[in-house]
Specification:
Layout lengths: L3 H20 L24 H22 L24 H20 L9 E3 L7 E3 H30 L1
Antiparallel strand pairs: 1-2
Length: 166
């Protein structure tokens, strides 16, 4: 029987494989391409590199928040894998971004492997916003859901790039 945590680990591995496949075979310039700069709804589109960088950074952030709920890190240490450099110039290189994808997968998988079934039920109040409570299970599920959403964005952006560069 597969445990809930094993299911989360499997889902994340599949999602990270999807990210790697999305990056496979791309030239670096594809990471900076945007399908449009102006839109009547919510402005310009993000580049493929920005989408993927945000996807992995937010996954790390949400799991770090869950780690904080478990009181295993300080609130000031809850951040994405590259902090303010989430969209830094290193993310304009496919090889670097692919390495980052697998590095953040390792962080996510190690966090999930560290959990017990009881840990998933843990909750803790936000340090500065009264009434807001974080929950480990919610943050894990939200990390997977959020990552999945951005993988869809990345895949569509890659398809649009392929149409314009053919």
């Amino acid at each position: 029987m597969t445990t809930e945590i094993e299911t989360y680990r499997t889902l994340l591995r599949y999602k990270y494989e999807d990210l790697d496949l999305t990056l496979d075979g791309l030239p670096d310039e594809a990471l900076l391409w945007r399908p449009f700069d102006v839109s009547p709804w919510r402005g310009s589109a993000n580049s493929l590199g920005e989408i993927i960088a945000h996807a992995v950074s937010s996954t790390v952030y949400l799991l770090a928040r869950a780690d904080w709920v478990l009181q295993r890190r300080e609130w000031r240490d809850v951040d994405g894998d590259e902090g303010g450099e989430e969209f830094g110039p290193a993310n304009h290189q496919v090889a670097y971004l692919r390495e980052r994808v697998w590095r953040t997968h390792g962080l996510a998988d190690a966090f999930l492997a560290s959990l017990s079934a009881q840990d998933l039920d843990a909750s803790w109040a936000h340090p500065t916003k009264p009434g807001r409570v974080f929950n480990v299970r919610y943050d894990v599920v939200h990390a997977i859901e959020h990552l999945s959403e951005h993988i869809g964005h990345a895949q569509l952006t890659r398809q649009l790039w392929a149409l314009t560069s053919a």
